[in-house]
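Researcher: Structure for this, please.
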Amino acid sequence: MDITSCFCVSAAAVFFFTVLWKLKEGCGTWFWTVWALVWVLVWALVGSSLYLSGPPVVCGLAVLGCSLFLMCETEKRVELQSRAVLITGCDSGFGLALALRLSESGLKVFAGVLDEDGAGAQQLRGRGCENLQVLQLDVTDNNQIETAHRYIGTQVADTGLWGLVNNAGVLHCPVDAELQPITAFRYCMDVNFLSAVKMCQVFLPLLRRSRGRIVNVSSMAGTSD
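Model: Predicted structure, token format:
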């Protein structure tokens, strides 16, 4: 088998496995199933005619191009309406802005707040967005974490959780270390580190259902020279 033939066989193999991957990972919708089958038909009709009537390398390039197109399209299309995300620390700042942005994009957002009666929670509710829910969630309180987990589990069911954003954090007065009480360091570790670990442990089963992602947000104040 010469080099050209090897290239054509390799291109066909790449296309075949791309179609299989497409059927498995393409959001599980009928759209991607039909789309992949259409390209199989294109390969069977057009690809074979190219191979018979023209140079084999033309056929290989055509099939390889189809594979790359399918891969790129998979990355572009996401069914946001069926996805759910949990964000902690939505009382203000980045968490609040992210909750609003993602809910406006069509995602179902569970916005965890330290104070469900606070200004941030009121602002989120004031948007009147059906796919944005405000949850009381003190990330240092195991009972509140478990309550949020049970509630979100009933809401997402078998779909699972697509994203967990550990955004909750605190920053104490930046003074010399010897002036800070040890309780301040403990609280900082509880909120900024241990709570993120706890949230990951509790919500991993829901994240695995949808092959979701975890985003841990940190502050530039945590860097040191």
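Researcher: Any notable elements?
Model: The domain at 80-218 is CATH 3.40.50.720 (Rossmann fold). The longest strand covers residues 108-113.
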